[in-house]
Design brief:
This protein is mostly beta strands and about 210 residues long. The chain contains two helices and 15 strands. The N terminus is likely disordered.
């Protein structure tokens, strides 16, 4: 997933992204995304405000979330002038199958509005980060030594028991209700605790490294 010209995308997507009666028009830098599970990249989002007096006091009141995709980071909104704002979102395709990236807002004038970017996570290929991770190679750079363990995950309240190891989830991390029977969990030592960095399993690629300061 590479950055592409947002103005060209805006022209292409006007018909499909605009709501004629809306106070805002949302644009994504892609019409859709299809890539192997575990793929990481950036998605641009633009918001065109059409009301002269917007009731939202800050662009931070726009919510960005996802289904089947993790949001690793969101850049500060940039005011491009004329009521047009832009941000870039770093995403990771977390679960094989259909998902979406969503931007939404709720205001007193127009109520709730949202726009979805369809995302389809494919099965991993030989060069995918998932493939390397499942084979035991941590696919990202980390300053500390990283280990991994394979097994079935049990535990609760942010504590994982897997393959005889006790691991801690970083603050803000969560797991889906159902996990594959067998997963590989990468972890590193942090402040005397074994902290989970990545969970890989059948159709699953969950990153937590972005939550560790």
């Amino acid at each position: 997933m590479k950055r592409i010209n947002m103005m060209a995308v805006a022209a292409i997507l006007t018909a499909v992204a605009a709501f004629s009666a809306s106070a805002c028009t949302f644009y994504f830098s892609y019409e859709s995304i299809e890539a192997p599970v575990g793929t990481t990249g950036q998605v641009g989002i633009r918001v065109q405000k059409t009301h002269g007096r917007c009731t939202l006091s800050s662009m931070d009141e726009y919510r960005i979330d996802g289904e089947g995709v993790q949001i690793l980071g969101v850049a500060a909104w940039e005011d491009l002038g004329g009521g047009l704002y832009e941000t870039w979102v770093q995403v990771s395709l977390a679960q094989e199958g259909d998902g979406a990236l969503r931007i939404s807002k709720s205001c007193t004038k127009e109520g709730y509005e949202e726009q979805l970017l369809p995302i389809h996570a494919l099965a991993p290929d030989d060069e995918a980060a998932w493939t390397a991770a499942w084979g035991g190679t941590y696919p990202f750079e980390m300053p500390e030594h990283v280990d991994s363990v394979v097994g079935r995950v049990t535990g609760e309240d942010g504590i994982l028991e897997v393959g005889g190891a006790t691991l801690v989830l970083p603050q803000g991390a969560s797991l889906p209700d159902e996990l594959p029977q067998t997963v590989r969990v990468f972890y590193a030592e942090d402040a005397g605790e074994s902290v989970a960095l990545l969970v890989v399993g059948d159709g699953l690629f969950l990153r937590f490294d972005h939550l560790i300061g």
